[in-house]
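Following the same procedure, the fold was encoded as tokens, giving this record:
***
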Amino acid sequence: MPKIKVNDINMYYEVHGDGFPLLMIPGVSICLKIWDKPLIDGLSKRFKTILFDNRGAGQTDIPDGEYTIKMMANDIAGLMDALNIECAYVLGFSMGGMIAQEMALNYPLKVKKLILWGTACGGRKSVPPDLTAYKLFIGAIEGLTPERMAKATIPLIFTKDFIKKNPEYIADKIQRFLKCRIPFHSYARQVKAMLNCNTCRRLKKMDIPTLILQGKNDILIPPKNGEILAELIPGAKLIFFEHSAHAIFPHEPDLFLKVLFEFLI
């Protein structure tokens, strides 16, 4: 499987399909195995869809030292250079959305259009998870075993109704979470990087077409964060998904792809 030297790490990546490049930036602790196959299949029919593991996760190297969101954005810019990609659509999910913001701010010529999925700007303007999400999050950490962390993640990103109606999907998702095993020290570094993120004061200067995707039932990144981003980013378009939690695509797959294609094409 392909790895490429980027900055101080060897970065694992995959390329699916042809067309204009679309980079998919994953969230905290997860690797590219977590993306739903119907999503990647749908995107790769129209775009050269590039998946990768952030530093410290999956099959990418786990270097010592602290991580920052800016550092991970630099990694992605380096990956683009290594793959001879001058400009791309950039989609960031959760923590990946914070990395995507840094990409757009620091490398504006590399980002043709920006999609921010279930994310926040960080700092005082962002709205933290509600108490239910916080307790689930802490419970996952305290369990420490990969199995407990994977199972505790499920109610953070899916609605109760979706979990009840889709047991086979949930079982498969847990197994894919387990394939994204990450050492706890690396997980902690990614979480710290996310908590230290703060792009809010700089977003008003951004001049890149931006689409913000937000689940109305998201308890991990409360919906107000989507509104805050839309207010800060000039000309940004905000779409709420009425029946979705943090992981929007599995809840409303057809609408998700329709919205994405209308923005990108």
Summary: The chain has a mean pLDDT of 93.
